[in-house]
Structure formats: C-alpha cells, structure tokens
Write a structure and sequence with these properties.
With 179 residues, the protein is of the alpha/beta class. It has one domain: Rossmann fold (3-Layer(aba) Sandwich). The chain is built from 4 helices and 9 strands. A 6-stranded mixed β-sheet has the order 4-3-2-5-6-7, sandwiched between helices. Strand 2, helix 2 and strand 3 form a beta-alpha-beta unit. Helix 1 packs across helix 2. The protein is globular, with a radius of gyration of 16 Å. The structure holds 1-O-pyrophosphono-5-O-phosphono-alpha-D-ribofuranose, manganese (II) ion and magnesium ion. The site of 1-O-pyrophosphono-5-O-phosphono-alpha-D-ribofuranose (PRP) has 17 residues, from strand 5 and helix 3. The site of 1-O-pyrophosphono-5-O-phosphono-alpha-D-ribofuranose has 17 residues, from strand 5 and helix 3. Pathway: Purine metabolism; IMP biosynthesis via salvage pathway; IMP from hypoxanthine: step 1/1; Purine metabolism; GMP biosynthesis via salvage pathway; GMP from guanine: step 1/1. It catalyses: IMP + diphosphate = hypoxanthine + 5-phospho-alpha-D-ribose 1-diphosphate; GMP + diphosphate = guanine + 5-phospho-alpha-D-ribose 1-diphosphate. One of its GO terms (cellular component) is cytosol.
Length: 179
C-alpha cells in the first residue's frame, strides 16, 4: 500500500466487479441506440476506459475536461471547462461518465451546458457517490459505490494531481493534506 494511504476502502477486485455490472446494465439501457459517451477528465479516465469495454452496444466517445478542485480537498464552487467536446451533441443520447459526485456542482453545471446544446437525452453514470457532500440537487442515474464523507484517492481520483494511478480506492492520511 502507498505510504500516504491510511486505509483501502474499495479493492481493485471490487471495482472490477462493479464496472462489469454497470456495463451490463448500460448495454440493456442503450440497446438499439448509439450513445455518445462523454468522459469527464481527468478523474474519470480509468473508469471510462474500463467501462466502455463492458458495454456491448455501438457507441461513440468524447472527452471534456473540467476542474473545480485544484489543489484542495474542497470544491472551489467555480467550474471551468478546460477542454470542450469535439463532437456536436445536438439530438444525441449522451451518457456522462464521471468518477465521483460530491457537491454535485460539476455535473449540474455540465448538464446545463449540454441541455442548452439540445441533446436528445442525458444520463449520468458515476462510479462513486458521496451524498454527504451535496450542496445542489443532483443525482446520478446509475452509480457504483456510496462513499462515506472522507477524501478518497485512486482509480483516477487525485489529490493535487497525485494518486490517480493507484488501482484501488484509498483514504488519505490527514497529515498529507494538512501539511
Ligand atoms: C473532481 C471529480 C469530479 C468532481 C466532483 O474533479 O473528478 O469531477 O470533482 O466534485 P463535485 O461534485 O463537488 O463537483 P476535479 O475538479 O478535482 O478535477 P479532476 O477530475 O481533473 O481531478
Ligand atoms: Mn473530475
Ligand atoms: Mg481532482
């Protein structure tokens, strides 16, 4: 285990099983359609890569980078589009792939942006959900794990851009972000 990690909350195997299950549910949900699957960078990059391998319907991919946390464990409350989509979403069935919903600010902002661009439908799949963090009314259509009110890293999730490569979900030692 990494030295800055206090505890492994979700193992690599638990994540793998959940991603397979979500992929199967999404394959049923989108049967007969051709969704545009949007990865919210950077956090969702590993989940996106693993998830789309488990979805059996034809689909297209795009990527959008937004950031609200920076080098902090609290959202700045201000969402910035760092990289926009390459694809037009007008009339498309959009599936947003997100790693975690905490305050809900990132996705409520993005849903607004996408609806103004006249999507046919938009749904959210998130691997992790931290309901205790919510400051706006925003729920995923599908989610993997409910997370307690602790700052987690790994499987794409960072603290100050570190720990994204850990293959499990860990809780950081408090001294790492208090120092
Ligand atoms: C994190 C995470 C989600 C968002 C969730 O992204 O990946 O996108 O925050 O928080 P919220 O529900 O409170 O908005 P971050 O802004 O840290 O950028 P990153 O994905 O590049 O790490
Ligand atoms: Mn993110
Ligand atoms: Mg981050």
């Amino acid at each position: 285990m990494h030295n800055d990690i206090k505890e492994v909350l979700i193992t690599r195997e638990q994540i793998q099983d959940k991603v397979v299950e979500l992929g199967q549910r999404l394959s049923e949900e989108y049967a007969g359609r051709n969704p545009l699957v949007i990865c919210i960078l950077k956090g969702a990059f590993i989940f996106m890569a693993d998830l789309v391998k488990e979805i059996s319907v034809p689909l297209e991919l795009d990527f959008m980078a937004v950031s609200s946390y920076g080098a902090s464990t609290k959202s700045s409350g201000e969402v910035k589009i760092v990289k926009d989509l390459d694809t037009s979403v007008e009339g498309r069935d959009v599936l947003i792939v997100e790693d975690i919903i905490d305050s809900g600010l990132t996705l409520s902002y993005l849903i607004d942006v996408l609806e103004r661009r006249k999507v046919n439908s938009v749904k959210i799949v998130t691997l992790f959900d931290k309901p205790a963090g919510r400051t706006v009314d925003l729920e995923a259509d599908m989610s993997g794990f409910v997370i307690p009110d602790e700052f987690i890293v790994g499987y794409g999730l960072d603290y100050a851009e570190k720990y994204r490569n850990l293959p499990y979900i860990g809780v950081l030692k408090p001294e790492v972000y208090n120092s």
